[in-house]
Specification:
Number of domains: 2
Number of helices: 10
Number of strands: 11
Radius of gyration: 19 Å
Largest sheet: 6 strands, parallel
Structural class: alpha/beta
Order of helices and strands: EHEHEHEHHHEHEHEEEEHEH
Shape: globular
CATH topology of the largest domain: Rossmann fold
CATH superfamily of the largest domain: NAD(P)-binding Rossmann-like Domain
Bound molecules: NADPH dihydro-nicotinamide-adenine-dinucleotide phosphate
Distance between the termini: 50 Å
Helix content: 40-55%
């Protein structure tokens, strides 16, 4: 079966969180407890689970959270007013607006309204621009988590062929920038890519961020490649609960890859740890 090193995101995120605890203590000692404001609009069940999980992890490392739950009927202007308050509040170091926002709320306007120095998700155009220039302030959490996993795999991207599948603003594009800054030769594939299989076959590093269960077949993976699977697809497998599948056909890919992230337990836990690392950095810089 698998010859690949399994990249355990749970264990790696725990290491990162343990390191954060010391930095949190140092902030507290100078009277600035790192604080993340979490804004959740509406009743999306998956968003509620994500928010709870972020708040629980934050509490474990001593980061304070301030919950801002708003009804699904909230207008863009009402949400902008709440963010303005949080921007002005010196006790708040990071602001997270849980996506997706209800239909009718202008997501781009909302994300642009967050003070870039409190934008711990790294979605503000200032922060995306700084990343592009190679002088990042806050790097989006999932892309940052992917890079930490690649590093943990002992893979230096320099000179390697990296393939990013997916070009979203929150995962695909920023992770491609990070790989470029790490001197990889980067290809970005998307829904119009003509021959995805051929692109995958020549890649030394593959970051899959598509949202299509097992789109990337195991037999396409180049022997020894590093595979980072961001995809989280809930699929009905006939059991009482849906099964969580990645964008990569895991078992078959693990038989060929040099290293691979499982789903769940790979990228997901790293995303939260990187978010909290950004909150601590924001508190240190405040
Ligand atoms: P988006 O839906 O925003 O983007 C998906 C991308 O995949 C698009 O660029 C799209 O191309 C591309 N795509 C769609 N179909 C194909 C195809 N057949 N071949 C190649 N490319 C294709 O998704 P996100 O980036 O937000 O998320 C991607 C996945 O990662 C999801 O499963 C999501 O749940 C998961 N995720 C996991 C996180 C974690 O912490 N583990 C965090 C964030 C996301 P085009 O642009 O042409 O439409």
């Amino acid at each position: 079966m698998s010859g690949a090193t399994i990249l355990d995101g749970k264990a790696l995120s725990k290491q990162l969180l343990d390191q954060l605890a010391g930095r949190v203590e140092a902030c507290k000692a100078r009277g600035a407890t790192p604080c993340l404001a979490v804004v959740l609009v509406g009743d999306d069940p998956a968003s509620k689970i994500y928010v709870r999980s972020k708040e629980r992890r934050a509490a474990k490392v001593g980061i304070a959270t301030a919950d801002h739950r708003l009804p699904a009927t909230t207008t863009t202007d009402e949400l902008l007013a709440r963010i303005d308050e949080l921007n002005r509040d010196d006790a708040v170091h990071g602001i997270l607006v849980q996506l997706p926002l209800p239909a009718g709320v202008d997501e781009q306007r909302v994300l642009r309204s967050v003070d870039p120095r409190k934008d711990v998700d790294g979605f503000h155009p200032d922060n995306l621009g700084l990343l592009m220039l190679g002088t990042p302030r806050f790097v989006a959490c999932t892309p940052q988590g992917c890079m930490r996993l690649i590093e943990h795999a002992g893979v230096d991207p320099s000179g390697k062929r990296a393939l990013v599948v997916g070009r979203s603003n929150i995962v695909g594009k920023p992770v491609a920038q990070l790989l470029l800054h790490a001197n990889a030769t980067v290809t970005i594939a998307h829904s119009r890519t003509q021959d995805l299989e051929a692109e995958v076959r020549r890649a030394d590093i593959i970051v899959a961020a598509v949202g299509r269960p097992e789109l990337i077949r195991g037999e396409w993976i180049r022997a020894g490649a590093c595979v980072i699977d961001v995809g989280m697809n809930r699929v009905d497998a006939g059991g009482p609960k849906p099964k969580l599948l990645g964008d990569v056909e895991y078992e078959a890919a693990a038989a060929r890859a040099g290293s691979i992230t499982p789903v769940p337990g790979g990228v997901g836990p790293m995303t939260i740890a990187c978010l909290l690392a950004n909150v601590v950095s924001a508190a240190e810089q405040a």
